[in-house]
Amino acid sequence: MSDDPHKRRPGRPKTVDRQRAIELAMVNYWREGVHNLSLNEVCRRAHISKPALYREFGGEDGLMEAALGHYRERVVAPVLEALAIELPFAELAEQLVVGMTTDRGTPAGCLFTEMRLARSRLGPATEARVRSME
């Protein structure tokens, strides 16, 4: 067996752009809610087949968990970092309000809250991610 990283692996070549699929899933679940978006529609919007999604993420639960993890890194972590800075309360509150209400081209609301309210539709991996974020 060769350790050559450029050697082709058996099977079909990978065609899924994982980061793009995660970003699209995050924005679409955030905008429309997990109850209002079918896995088929997620696949259509991400331009990936359902078998490719299953190969890459293990299914819808894996994709939702990855999308929520991406949301945590992109949206929640900066807020937590801001809270760790030692500032007078009024200044910190103003920065947080401005930061949370500035239009950044993202959907309104909170994906984390949406997923917490949709627990009956979440798989075990996504449920575990929600619990860890709580």
Could you characterize what this model shows?
This protein is mainly α. It has one domain: Tetracycline Repressor, domain 2 (Orthogonal Bundle). Helix content is 64%, strand content 0%. The chain is built from seven helices and no strands. Helix 1 (18-32) crosses helix 4 and helix 4 packs parallel to helix 7. The longest helix is centred in the middle third of the chain and has 25 residues, at 60-84. It is elongated, with a radius of gyration of 18 Å. The termini are far apart. The mean pLDDT is 86.
Distance between the termini: 45 Å
What is the 3D shape? Answer: elongated
Number of helices: 7
Query: Which regions have little confidence, pLDDT < 50, spanning 5+ residues?
Result: none
Give the C-level CATH assignment: Mainly Alpha
List the secondary-structure elements in sequence, H or E: HHHHHHH
Helix content: 55-70%
CATH superfamily: Tetracycline Repressor, domain 2
Q: Provide the β-strand percentage band.
A: under 5%
Radius of gyration over C-alpha positions, nearest whole angstrom = 18 Å
Question: Which structural class matches the secondary elements?
Answer: mainly alpha
Kindly identify the CATH topology: Tetracycline Repressor, domain 2
- CATH architecture classification: Orthogonal Bundle
What is the domain total for the residues?
A: 1
Largest sheet: none
Q: How many distinct beta strands?
A: 0
Q: What's the average pLDDT?
A: 86
